[in-house]
């Protein structure tokens, strides 16, 4: 399945084992009260008559995985929303990456200078804390503003 797209896979012919797997998932949905008996009968009939994966996928596309309760689905949705809210905007990620790269280069150069020169050397990399602190403050502010909107 390396280079095949999902559309290519969906047009492939389904096997009896695939039809049985979908029928089992439909039975689990019936047992959990997600499908009425009439819906279950219609979908199982369609599952056993399906020729392609696409026809099978349509039958279970509106169902959560078996064993998930409505509470589990809601909890996962809330967790995803919290993760999305914590995610930094791309501009801040770029700025943090640039700051980190400049800091690493300065520390390496400082380390080389200290190792190769006798006597005391002014610790110039300490000045990189200033833009780092400013960037940290901006990040905290942006996240606070984003969290107020939610």
TrEMBL record:
Coiled coil: none annotated. Keywords: Membrane, Transmembrane, Transmembrane helix. InterPro entries: DUF1707_SHOCT-like (IPR012551). The chain crosses the membrane at residues 90-114, 126-145. Residues 12-64 form the DUF1707 domain. The keyword Membrane applies. Pfam families: DUF1707. The keyword Metal-binding does not apply. This is DUF1707 domain-containing protein.
């Amino acid at each position: 399945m390396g280079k095949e797209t999902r559309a290519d896979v969906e047009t492939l012919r389904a096997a009896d084992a695939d039809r049985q797997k979908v029928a089992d998932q439909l039975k689990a949905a019936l047992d959990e009260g997600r499908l009425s008996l009439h819906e279950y009968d219609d979908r199982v009939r369609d599952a056993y008559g399906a020729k392609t994966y696409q026809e099978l996928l349509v039958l279970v596309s509106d169902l959560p995985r078996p064993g998930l309760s409505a509470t589990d689905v809601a909890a996962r949705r809330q967790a995803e929303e919290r993760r999305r809210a914590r995610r930094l905007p791309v501009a801040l990620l770029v700025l943090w990456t640039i700051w980190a790269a400049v800091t690493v280069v300065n520390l390496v150069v400082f380390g080389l200078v200290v190792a190769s020169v006798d006597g005391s050397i002014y610790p110039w990399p300490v000045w990189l804390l200033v833009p780092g602190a400013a960037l940290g403050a901006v990040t905290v502010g942006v996240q606070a503003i984003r969290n107020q909107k939610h």
